[in-house]
User: Fold NADH-ubiquinone oxidoreductase chain 4L from Takydromus tachydromoides.
Amino acid sequence: MTMTLLLLYTSFLLGLLGLSLHRTHLMLILICIEGMMLTLYLMMALFTSSLNITTITILPILLLAMSACEASTGLALLVATSRTHGTDHMKTLSLLKC
Assistant:
């Protein structure tokens, strides 16, 4: 395993660990998910460049577009919840409250 892959694996696992342990604010959750998506993008870009197959070179660009859509949706939800509830604490958000 090369040093680059080891660093990418550890950064993905750190994002996953941050997602599972620090679920107090919605903004922290979005940052952890975005870090995981960027790590996946880098892994896929390295994978496609090492294989030299022209049919899968579009996959990292599609993943980057999907992560941009995910980030915009997450920020829209963050703005909507902070306007309605006044905070982005996850403990105050509940599906039973309106």
